[in-house]
């Protein structure tokens, strides 16, 4: 199509308006809708780790000790919610009590995972004093956890080659068998 001098700026304006709408939509959806749907309504890292400043390791106790960070058992949730009578009527808290009464684990949807053939260990990274947020983003500000970056091999290797962010250790191994065995 042939654009006249007058039509071109109007198209540009329409294009900008469209981009603005897209931006507004993505901001409007906010942190809540970007991750997978989780089984407990309104379970929020912002409320727990942000507003109430509960330590990551209170719920992810495995991170420092083992390969898996793990999600907390229902009993960890109940350690607080059993005594929090004021929030018993919240729908998410009711769901939590249902799992507790059924003695069933909560089927949380995984967000971060690697293919089987790649090995990752939290332990080594925590020892190197790399903050959770370096890899998972500002979790304490997220209602719903979403993937913070693409988890590609280059990301791992780039940091292993240049571990400026890691306080304790000058370099991390980059031979293939570090992560593939
Ligand atoms: C260390 C204490 C503590 C632990 C452990 C804990 N919570 Fe909470 N939870 C809180 C506090 C504090 C609030 C905010 C006050 C409120 O809602 O009454 C809260 C709020 C909530 C809410 C209400 C959100 C809303 O406003 O609708 C849900 C749902 C919830 N927690 C689920 C869980 C689940 C599931 C677990 C386990 C994975 C868990 N909590 C572990 C302290 C805790
Ligand atoms: C009150 C307990 C609680 C606290 C405190 C908490 N988490 Fe979580 N975390 C959970 C639960 C439950 C899940 C699984 C549901 C979900 O993904 O939201 C989870 C999931 C995650 C995931 C995604 C795991 C996956 O599926 O791949 C990451 C990453 C994470 N938490 C990091 C953190 C960090 C970092 C902190 C501290 C800033 C933190 N969490 C504090 C309970 C907690
Ligand atoms: C160097 C990057 C890095 C750091 C630092 C890191 N994580 Fe992770 N995390 C990952 C990767 C990669 C995965 C996926 C692992 C897999 O699939 O084997 C993951 C997975 C998880 C999961 C999903 C469940 C599981 O057990 O694998 C949780 C929960 C989690 N991380 C929490 C944390 C918390 C809490 C911290 C800080 C104490 C932390 N992570 C620090 C990279 C990191
Ligand atoms: C932000 C920097 C950073 C990122 C990102 C990172 N690592 Fe690391 N990694 C380190 C440091 C630092 C160590 C500790 C090296 C040591 O203890 O000598 C380490 C250690 C390891 C180890 C243990 C090595 C050993 O033999 O002790 C494995 C396995 C590993 N990383 C895999 C991965 C994988 C897989 C990814 C990507 C999914 C990844 N890392 C992402 C910095 C990082
Ligand atoms: C620090 C950890 C780390 C090291 C070291 C590493 N890899 Fe990987 N590699 C990964 C991760 C994580 C993935 C999965 C994510 C992806 O596909 O990018 C992967 C994926 C791959 C894949 C599949 C890629 C694809 O597109 O399907 C191949 C092949 C591979 N690596 C080969 C190697 C070889 C060969 C070396 C040694 C020269 C090596 N890797 C060293 C972490 C590592």
How much helicity do the residues have? 40-55%
Q: Between the first and last Cα atoms, what is the distance in angstroms?
A: 57 Å
Secondary-structure-based class equals mainly alpha
Q: Would you list the SSEs in sequence order as H and E?
A: HHHHHHHHH
Largest sheet: none
Question: So what's the oligomer here?
Answer: single chain
Question: Radius of gyration, Cα only, in angstroms?
Answer: 22 Å
Number of strands: 0
User: What percent strand?
Assistant: under 5%
Q: Which regions have little confidence, pLDDT < 50, spanning 5+ residues?
A: 1-33
Shape: elongated
Overall description:
The chain is mainly alpha-helical. The protein is 43% helix and 0% strand. α4 (74-81) packs across α5 (91-102). The structure holds heme C (5 copies). Residues 114-115, 118, 152-153, 156-157, 160, 174, 176, 178-180 line the site of one heme C. One heme C binds at residues 38, 43, 45, 48-49, 54, 56, 58-60, 71-72, 108, 110-112, 132, 136, 139-140, 145.
């Amino acid at each position: 199509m042939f654009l006249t001098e007058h039509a071109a700026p109007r198209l540009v304006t329409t294009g900008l308006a469209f981009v603005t709408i897209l931006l507004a939509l993505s901001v409007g959806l906010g942190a809540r809708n970007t991750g997978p749907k989780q089984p407990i309504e309104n379970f929020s890292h912002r409320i727990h780790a942000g507003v109430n400043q509960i330590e990551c390791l209170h719920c992810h106790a495995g991170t420092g000790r083992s390969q898996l960070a793990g999600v907390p058992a229902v009993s960890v949730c109940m350690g607080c919610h059993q005594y929090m009578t004021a929030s018993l009527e919240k729908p998410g808290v009711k769901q939590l009590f249902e799992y507790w009464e059924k003695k069933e684990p909560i089927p949380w949807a995984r967000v971060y995972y690697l293919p089987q053939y790649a090995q990752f260990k939290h332990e080594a990274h925590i020892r190197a004093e790399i903050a959770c947020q370096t890899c998972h983003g500002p979790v304490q500000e997220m209602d719903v956890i979403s993937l913070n970056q693409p988890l590609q091999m280059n990301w791992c290797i780039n940091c292993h080659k240049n571990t400026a962010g890691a306080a304790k250790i000058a370099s991390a191994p980059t031979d293939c068998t570090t992560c593939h065995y």
